[in-house]
Amino acid sequence: xxxxxxxxMFASLRTARARCNLDLVTNPSLIKFxxxxxxxxxxxxxxxxxxxxxxxxxxWTQRVKGxxxxxxxxxxxxxxxxxxxxxxxxxxxxxxxxxxxxxxGGSVPQAGExxxxxxxxNSRCEVDPDTLMxxxxxxxxxxxxxxxxxxxxxxPGVDLASRGSATIGGMAATNAGGLHVLRYGSMRSSVxxxxxxxxxxxxxxxxIPLAKDNSGISFSPLVVGSEGTLAVITELSxxxxxxxxxxxxxxxxxxxxxxxxxxAGKVRxxxxxxxxxxxxxxxxxxxxxxxxxxIFPIKDPFEIVLLLEIASNGNASNELTEILDGxxxxxxxxxxxxxxxxxxxxxxxFWRESITxxxxxxxxxxxxxxxxxxxxxGELWQSIDTIQKGLAxxxxxxxxxxxxxxxxxxxxxxxxxxxxxxxxxxxxxxxxLDGSITAEHGIGTLKKEFLQxxxxxxxxxxxxELIEIFNPGRTLNPNVLL
Length: 482
Prior knowledge:
This protein is α+β, with helices and mostly antiparallel strands. It has four domains: 13-120, Uridine Diphospho-n-acetylenolpyruvylglucosamine Reductase, domain 2, CATH 3.30.43; 125-242, Uridine Diphospho-n-acetylenolpyruvylglucosamine Reductase, domain 3 (2-Layer Sandwich), CATH 3.30.465; 246-356, Alpha-Beta Plaits (2-Layer Sandwich); 363-463, Alpha-Beta Plaits. Helix content is 35%, strand content 20%. The protein contains 19 helices and 16 strands. The chain has helices at 13-19, 22-25, 28-38, 50-53, 77-90, 142-150, 168-173, 181-184, 187-190, 220-223, 257-270, 282-292, 316-325, 330-335, 342-353, 355-360, 377-390, 416-432, 457-470; strands at residues 46-47, 71-72, 94-97, 114-117, 125-128, 133-137, 154-156, 191-198, 231-242, 246-254, 274-281, 304-312, 337-339, 366-371, 395-402, 407-414. A seven-stranded antiparallel beta sheet has the order 13-10-12-11-15-16-14, with helices on both faces. Strands 5, 6, 7, 8 and 9 form a five-stranded antiparallel beta sheet that branches. A four-stranded mixed beta sheet has the order 1-2-4-3, with helices on one face. A hairpin with a 4-residue loop joins strand 5 (125-128) and strand 6. Helix 3 (28-38) runs antiparallel to helix 5 and helix 17 (377-390) runs antiparallel to helix 18 (416-432). The longest helix is centred in the C-terminal third of the chain and has 17 residues, at 416-432.
């Protein structure tokens, strides 16, 4: 893609006004901002063509659409420093964007903010096999890091279905979780250190991957999960984990989620080799069948299936077989699907990883990313059924998620007024169960009004105080989180 470059080649402000798009011409702050950064950024870093900017102003779900007159794409840490300082000086707001895979509206400019894309900040992707760490630029995609790490039989602990687009910086900013939180934790567990540019224009001095550093308050865990409201992450050091020599997968059907929760608990007591316990509703299976033109192999009745993955350096297939023999009755064992080699493993994971795309083909879903104490999963599931029935066929609900950490992804399809009603009822239900309205997607812009359901006024006030310290005037992501 060739970007139309603005202002870098301008000989004067008059020329700049002639060549910028009409909205830029009428915005003196943006003109000053462009003049300030054009001499510091490389050719290709500044874009004002509305058609080229447009893909950056709509989120992955297509539900959140914003607007911006200017896109800046620095390719190194110093470029980010220059952009943030210029924004402060010119009183311009910035919307930070990684791979634009946000599912809560957190990467889209809502009020004409300048888009600060980190997609070109991707030169460094270095793996140190001796320390099991990687040092990467924020714009590196997860898939690229996985490829580099695999050369040494290593992998990042966090894995996402959007691995081809999701960037490491964006994943850290939102504290992404994904498929293996049960075993390896979320991004906060993986980030050893990071380099960033704070919202006041100062920069963190170093990114040194010390495994142990107890010299006072650590700022890296504060930045991870702050959704760009404190700083722009530019570089990270991450823990890597060895790739297990052997993997095996089982898909087990259940008629009721408490049975699945009990089974998962029993399995967790039997082994520490579990790398995933994923739950998939019958409706999600049917949506994949309709989208992909395939038929799910389990014929016996079920309401939910669990995808259980064992990963170890021993014989995962034998271990999985022993676990199933010791925890399932005969009829359920006969209905269970097993994946013991590369082809069958991929074939079973297909049903889990195809869900999001299949839902998207049905419309623009409202995606609720919920977590509750695992013991409350059954009550949450049943209560959502009740809400759906109360709306008399006007609401479609597609559920899947991570049973091992109590995280359900609830996808809602229907008319906007119905979606809004269901959203409010479900969030109130989650709050009543001492849960969270977002387990791994973040608050973004879509969930701001509901944050007070799960956070006290004092907690919200402390968040605002922190933002004011590190991002005074809210130059960065002014409409995200709070």
